[in-house]
Design brief:
Blueprint (H helix, E strand, L loop, with lengths): L3 E8 L10 H15 L9 E5 L12 H5 L10 E4 L5 H14 L5 E9 L5 H9 L4 H4 L5 H17 L3 H15 L13 H5 L7 E3 L2 E2 L8 E10 H4 L6 E10 L13 H14 L8 E4 L4 H10 L8 H6 L16 H5 L3 H16 L14 E7 L4 E9 L2
Parallel strand pairs: 2-3, 2-4, 9-10
Antiparallel strand pairs: 1-7, 1-8, 4-7, 5-6, 8-11, 10-11
Helix pairs in contact: 3-14, 4-6, 7-11
The structure holds acetoacetyl-coenzyme A.
């Protein structure tokens, strides 16, 4: 699946959208992404919608909502795809398969989530459905609780990592200031992220509020085309690799601090692309919790096992570091509307590779990596993107 390109995109600001529901959020990006590609809705051959839902919104069957955004979408095939927090990437993969099979020239992929309508504890419960409920269903604090367990295990093996986690949080909050689509554009600073306070209490295990991604509403969309078609279009970002690796769901069946599914996905992606980590100009990675970003440094091979803290504390992953990670601010400050996240990561990386990332721009960006994860390293998607021209 290496001969497809992203040729247009759209993105709502992420945040609390009091007056929007899933339908109106979809409406803000679907036709806009098509227009951004220089196309009209009639040109689209297939629609894929990524949304986790699982109780966030009472409206089921959401793929059909996309058709309501233009009369010219009527009678197009439209399907909803779900793979926990990697739902956005799962939707993109569905589209890539359509293009690779020659079943369509243009596929519209929309990712959306409306999370903030539920009260806090309900949000936690809804997210926890993406864990193995028979063993993990009683963990307090929703998915923060799951990653609190993972952080504790890592701390037991490699020592207290609170300094490194605060450095990751501070980096991503600083990056988010430059992202016009980010939910929290505030440079919180290292000291605030490092210190337990009324404004930054413990949430789960050693994880404080600043170690957690945000609860968000939002949508992102992109248009996929085959490479030959894309070559004649205004802008085109090519998939050098698009890899999916799934691992077991129960934490008890894995050495969870290794994030082995993530490691496998990166290895396969580099083999598919003919690249290595050193070739990448930037990475957008799934920092649902700061401990996840630290484990991902190790799983992607940036540092040896147990040394993730080095990359954070020595500034390797800052925007001007040797490998900028999450120049968009990541899920930490950009926000994490579950079904939209994977699509957003591809949009942000496409902006970087076409020189359209404005204040977020990483200088001379030529190759971008993306890691989007469902559950605790259960569904692992890595993409490697480059400008087509
Ligand atoms: C499931 C999968 O497949 C894999 C995954 O990706 S798992 C990730 C899924 N997502 C999550 O679990 C979301 C995690 N985050 C949260 O649940 C919540 O943000 C939280 C529990 C950490 C905080 O929520 P809360 O305590 O209710 O905070 P809330 O009352 O909304 O806000 C209080 C203040 O903290 C700030 N705040 C809220 N969340 C914050 C966060 N994550 N980081 C920094 N600041 C935050 C607010 O802006 C607000 O600031 P002001 O007082 O200055 O206005």
């Amino acid at each position: 699946m290496t001969s497809s390109c992203i040729v247009g995109w759209a993105h709502t600001p992420f945040g609390k959208h009091e007056n929007d529901d899933v339908e109106s959020l979809i409406g803000k990006v679907a036709t806009q992404a098509v227009a951004d590609a220089g196309l009209e809705p009639k040109d689209i051959d297939e629609i894929v919608l990524g949304t986790y839902n699982e109780g966030f919104s009472p409206q089921g069957f959401p793929s059909s909502l996309v058709l309501q955004t233009s009369p010219d979408f009527r009678f197009k095939p439209a399907t909803r795809v779900e793979n926990a927090c990697a739902t956005g990437s799962a939707a993109i993969h569905q589209g890539l398969k359509t293009i690779a099979a020659g079943k369509g020239r243009f596929v519209l992929v929309v990712g959306v989530e409306k999370m903030t309508a539920l009260p806090g504890p309900e949000i936690g419960k809804t997210l926890l459905k993406a864990s193995y409920l028979k063993e993990e269903g009683e963990i307090d604090g929703g998915f923060a609780g799951v990653f609190g367990v993972i952080a504790n295990q890592y701390f037991q093996r490699h020592g207290d990592q609170s300094d490194a986690l605060a450095a990751i949080a501070a980096k991503n909050h600083a990056n988010g200031v430059e992202n016009p689509w980010a939910q929290m554009r505030k440079d919180l600073g290292y000291d605030f992220c490092r210190t337990v306070s009324e404004k930054n209490p413990y949430v789960a295990g050693p994880l404080k509020r600043t170690d957690c991604s945000l609860v968000s509403d939002g949508a992102a969309a992109l248009v996929l085309a085959d490479e030959e078609t894309a070559a004649a279009m205004d802008k085109a970002v090519k998939f050098r690799a698009a890899v999916q690796v799934n691992d077991y769901l129960p934490l008890s069946k894995r050495d969870i601090v290794l994030f082995e599914g993530c490691e496998q996905a990166w290895k396969k992606a580099h083999a598919e692309a003919g690249t290595s980590l050193a070739d990448l100009s930037l990475v957008e990675t799934h920092d649902c919790f700061t401990i996840a970003e630290l484990l991902e440094y190790e799983a992607m091979g940036l540092v040896p096992r147990g040394q993730g803290a080095r990359a954070a504390l020595e500034g390797w992953t800052k925007k001007d570091g040797r490998l900028p990670v999450n120049p968009s601010g990541g899920l930490k400050s950009k926000g994490h509307p579950i079904g939209a996240t994977g699509v957003s990561m591809h949009v942000m990386t496409s902006m970087q590779l076409t020189g359209k990332a404005e204040g977020m721009q990483v200088r001379d960006a030529t190759l971008g990596g993306i890691f989007n994860m469902g559950g605790a390293a259960v569904a692992n998607y890595v993409s490697i993107l480059e400008p087509l021209k």
